[in-house]
Design a protein that fits this description.
alpha/beta, Arc Repressor Mutant, subunit A, binds calcium ion, 8 helices
Length: 219
């Protein structure tokens, strides 16, 4: 059974999540503020954290940065207020695995929770795939639609990052730090340039631009 920690100070939303998740077979616990959220999430007793950004005492960003700073790998889905694109980007940059904007449909959140739990349970794979697109991590070869695609080292790194985060929006900064390391100026457009190269090789519609946030590999 999967244990989910709900860090949310709005009683109505916390109760809604709690009820919905229990009905779907999860064990849940609610934390009403940032300190409680950190204490419970770092205990290792939970498989996933749903983290509201606007929490009293210690906000969601601080909880997340502290968890990641101490190498807690618990999957985190952040909840952000509608229209707060900056919060979403900052949350992903701070180490969130996914996000939902309020108000959200419960079924969509449930699908995202299941996806995150599945991707952490997966053993190390040698071939990553999405639809007809495959990437062999040993031979470093990609293939799509039955044809082999030659990739440069950076293109390979970028595609591997996308394939390891299925259906997840990745910010430019996340992609920069994962593929290039932190040696690049965050204002650099190198990510956009390489996304363009990948689109040229894999097809334009393979990587979607999510306005104001980043890019997503289309499943
Ligand atoms: Ca709140």
């Amino acid at each position: 059974m999967n244990r989910i920690l709900i860090a949310e100070d709005e009683q109505r939303i916390a109760a809604f999540l709690d009820k919905g998740l229990r009905r779907n077979g999860f064990t849940t616990e609610i934390a009403n503020d940032g300190s409680a959220a950190y204490a419970l999430a770092s205990s290792g007793a939970f498989d996933l954290l749903i983290l509201d950004i606007g929490l009293p005492e210690v906000d969601g960003f601080s909880v997340l940065r502290r968890l990641r700073g101490e190498h807690h790998e618990i999957p985190v889905i952040i909840l952000t207020a509608r229209g707060e694109v900056d919060d979403t980007v900052a949350g992903l940059d701070a180490g969130a695995d996914d996000y939902m904007r309020k108000p959200f449909a419960f079924d969509e959140l449930l699908a995202r929770i299941r996806l995150r739990l599945r991707s952490t349970a997966k053993p190390e794979e040698i071939v990553l795939r999405s639809g007809d697109l495959t990437l062999d991590l040993r031979t470093r070869r990609a293939a799509t639609g039955g044809r082999q695609v030659e990739l440069t080292a950076r293109e390979f790194g970028l595609l591997e990052t996308f394939l390891r985060h299925p259906d997840q929006v990745l910010t430019r900064e996340q992609l920069l730090s994962r593929v290039w390391g932190f040696h690049f100026d965050p204002g650099s457009n190198v990510v956009d340039v390489y996304v363009r190269y990948l689109r040229g090789k894999l097809g334009d519609d393979r990587i979607e631009t999510v306005r104001g946030i980043g890019y997503r590999l289309v499943p």
